[in-house]
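User: I'm curious what two different proteins look like when written out as structure tokens. Can you demonstrate?

Assistant: Sure. I'll show them one after the other, since each token string lines up with its own sequence. Here's the first protein:
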Amino acid sequence: VTGRAAAGAALVIPVRDPQPWSPGDPHLYEMIFEVLSSDGQTLDQVESYVGLRKVHIEGHRVFLNNEPVYQRLVLDQGFYPDGIWTAPSDAALKADIEMSMRAGFNGARLHQKVFEERFHYWADRLGYLTWGESASWGCDPFSDQGARNFLGEWHQIVERDRNHPSIIAWTPWNETWHLGDDPQAHHRTHADSYDLCKSLDPTRPVNDASGGIHVKTDLWTEHHYEQDAAKLEQILTPSANGPWLREPNRIFRYGGQPYFLDEFGGTKWVGEKRRDEDGGDWGYGEGPRTLEEFYQRLEALVETVLGLDHCCGYCYTQLTDVEQECNGIFRYDRSEKFDLDRIRAISSRLPSP
């Protein structure tokens, strides 16, 4: 199709038998954009791609292309030993996604980092679901200065990345449990973040605060690192008040949104030879004493979450060890810590029909 070269101009391209993008079939349409002179000569050209897919919510479930999708995510902080928050290469970004998929996960919550654009490129190509997030830790939502700075940056983040089909949810904030001296300012910043996101991209659900105080949200998320599967089931089993009122400073009641346990697990494992050493290594709860105990604990925790009918997905903490955090599926240098066949057998499971 050809149209006038003008800012904001829309071009409508008919597509026969459109093929949607999905994790199982990440179909992408290759695109060529050309700027032509009045006599038809090419003045400039750029190549890109586009994916067709739909994300929507029905009841307390998330749908992808009109089919319910159970999200088995892993927490990815995007740290590297040689660059910290900077990946050493484009190949390293691709490799992290491939590692996660080999371990049985179908996506990631991109935690507290605005990931590289090439990461999203590979997620699009490989069929990897992600939640886009901001590096919001330390930016108080009840602070006028914090809110002003954050909203300007969040606008740029969403605008930069909104065309990637692999991103299926946005998370502006993380663990905003502290209300400060002005709770109304805290709540207003959450609502403003949600509204800004929807104005820039009405096609995706928004999780206003991962594991924090939800004010205005399409997804209801909780964080819980209980290591005993039976206790975790008791904590998250719906009651008269619901598991979503676990935090005492929660003010807003659950409204029937899709419910995610978007941080759990985090079990420490540094290896049997180092288990008694105190090197500052850290993980949630008391670490298992043997490798077999780790597998059994992981399986019990995942099976517990899968058995919660009200829960439509989870995010396991985490993909790799990070600095002192030794709760990754892989080590910091991306070497394998576990038998990936056993890990994949656990993390690729789906809830019983």
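Here's a second, unrelated protein for contrast:
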Amino acid sequence: MAKPIPEMPSSVFVALVGRPNVGKSSLTNYLVGEKVAIVTKKPQTTRSRITGVITKGPVQYVLMDTPGIHAARNKLDARMTQTAAASLKDVDVTMMLFEPAGEFTDAELTMVKALQKGGPAIAVINKVDLLDSFAALEARKKQLEEFGCFDHIVTISAKDGTGCDELFAMIKPYGNEGPHYFDDDAFTDMPEKELVAELVREKALLFLREEVPHGIAVVVERFKERPDKDLIDIDVDIYCERKSHKGMIIGKGGQMLKKIASAARMDIEELLGVKVNLQCWVKVREDWRDNELQLNSLGFAKP
């Protein structure tokens, strides 16, 4: 009996796009099986392009989780939207996530127009766990079919995993033969320092009131392993836009900052697999979201 010919190594690059809070980061984390993207109920949680890597035998899947597409209110927003648009040019296939019902936003329709000009793309209807109407779902599928730019239309729940694992078989044919770009055991291309900064920002988003969180940026200033014991010293600067915001982030008697740091430390220790001494400092940089120099210095490079 002839031996089966081994499958050649291949890679498939996938952009995940969609409106804020549609579930791109939750889906990325589910597929990767590790927390590479921070998830909160607040829009604009993802600010830069985050790469998740999954290697299944000869095939390496590289997921690019992009910022939610929305109308820009400041220079940071504009850079985020440019990042999402730029991702479409670098990938083999785009997965565009949609809510299961409701009107499409102008930003979504603009993204669909871009996909109509350059594909290929798959439409992913997320949050089907929230739907109790089969008719509404069928209506949504029909709308997406009418756009004429999607090779497949699938329904999933990134929250409970329904339909998510089937996505691998669907995106595999879009791949290209060639050596893998990342180590087979890698799950992201983000440096550890960036992952740590994102975890601190996630906790700030979770615990603070609406008006403060989007005005914060987190930078890891020190990340040093102690030579004599299994411990990493991490110093983090949290930048905000107003003196009044600094007070809110620190909280009465330092309670809020302690709460943020303590929750972040637990996640960081789990990520790094080692004990962490985390120190957080709060600093003010007026209106950094609208200042090109500040955006560059805080790591928000133009795409």
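A detail about the second structure: Residues 269 and 275 are 6 Å apart (CA to CA).
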